[in-house]
Amino acid sequence: MSECLKLHISQVFKDEVAKNGFNHVSVAKIMKQSGIRRQTFYENFKDKFDLLDYTIKSMM
How far is CA 11 from CA 24, 46, in A? Predict the structure, then answer.
């Protein structure tokens, strides 16, 4: 998958965490807000913790 898509998912994740807190963010919410399918999410990330790790690393 493209790095652009991963960055888009990461941005949606950051927005959701800012609004709702990490514990209240689900893969389903991320999918809905980013307009991707479940399969697309899991092709890029193992779970929301993997997405968190990617997001932190992309900010460095």
Answer: 16, 17
Q: Which residues fall within 8 angstroms of residue 33, CB to CB, at 6 or more apart?
A: 12, 15, 16
> Which tokens in the block code for residue 49?
């913790």
The ranges of the chain with pLDDT < 70 are 1
Could you tell me how many residues make up the chain? 60
pTM exceeding the 0.85 threshold for the entire prediction: yes
DSSP 5-31: HHHHHHHHHHHHHHHH-GGG--HHHHH
Q: Give the number of other CB atoms < 10 A from CB of residue 19.
A: 11
